[in-house]
Amino acid sequence: MRLTSLSSLLCLAGLVSVPVNAYDDPNIKSIPLRTHSLSPPYLDSDFQSRWFDFGGDTVVRADKYLRLTADRPSQQGWIFSRVPLTATNWQIELEFEIHGAGNLHGDGFALWLTKERATQGPVFGSTDRFEGLGIFFDTYKNNRPGVSFPYVMAMMGDGQTTYDQAHDGKANELAGCSARGLRSAPVPTKARLTYFQDKSLTLELQYKTEDSWTNCFTLNADEANIAIPSVAYLGLSAETGELSDNHDIISLKAENLYSLNRNNNNAGKGSSDGRSKGRDGAKASKEGGSWTWFLFKTIMFFAAIAGAYFGWTIYRTKARSSRF
């Protein structure tokens, strides 16, 4: 079943309230973001998705995968969230499969966090000159000597710069790594992208051994521009040219990360945390005092009513007695 693009719908982002540990640091907890997650059967009972739009050549097989492109030439497909990802610290885990019948294959797929959304184009099936982050899983080597493919790289677009298609993004690369064995791997292939605003961006891959993650890159704010737009849509896209592959998305899981320890380097901000603690403590104390005073006044109010009723009852009884 092929789905055309669904009309955009602005909805409030929903959160599942039960925190789970999704990060290696025990001081970091997470809250799943159902607005930016996908898993079988992918669609609602009316054969639509509440939180995502699908377009191009994307095909949904509810029991198995979202196929961005089939193993046929000249295909493009995409999936984009309907609401932006506004969490400041987050982790995205993607399970995918790249496979096909031929010995030659291409071109690859991309993971997006951009201001633009749901626009088909020449960069792995999505638009060029984007603003935000693109992670490219490139399976076909055009002209990049000394680099083994598949190659995974990050590009931070400024809305003006064109992707260097002829040289597989060499001029645009923020960071990257070779991932031989990523295509048709013997274990589930996954990518895990972790972002702490104004601090770090990390990409890990699973394709060698199950439950074993390989670090592709880790970038710190003092090393590179990793500032993702505050309003960015989460998307996936893929394309094939003369050569082709199946580009299948198995599941997508997004989680909001938060720190249990304000002094944690990955989620805190040094001395400002002390001031935050002071403000938070004062606020909590003020709120606690307000509630105590409100409760006291409520009790006194009802006590006054009870006392008045009791006094009036005694007065009425005495008045009746005096008549006789």
UniProtKB/TrEMBL annotation:
Signal peptide coordinates: 1-22
GO biological process, one term: endoplasmic reticulum to Golgi vesicle-mediated transport
Limits of the L-type lectin-like domain: 30-257
Region (Disordered): 263-285
Protein's membrane topology: Single-pass type I membrane protein
Key words, A-Z: Membrane, Signal, Transmembrane, Transmembrane helix
Subcellular location(s) of the protein: Membrane
Compositional bias of kind Basic and acidic residues: 272-285
Annotated coiled-coil segments of the chain: none
PROSITE patterns tied to this protein: L_LECTIN_LIKE (PS51328)
Entry's Gene Ontology cellular component terms: COPII-coated ER to Golgi transport vesicle; endoplasmic reticulum membrane; endoplasmic reticulum-Golgi intermediate compartment; Golgi membrane
Full protein name: L-type lectin-like domain-containing protein
Native organism taxonomy: Eukaryota, Fungi, Dikarya, Ascomycota, Pezizomycotina
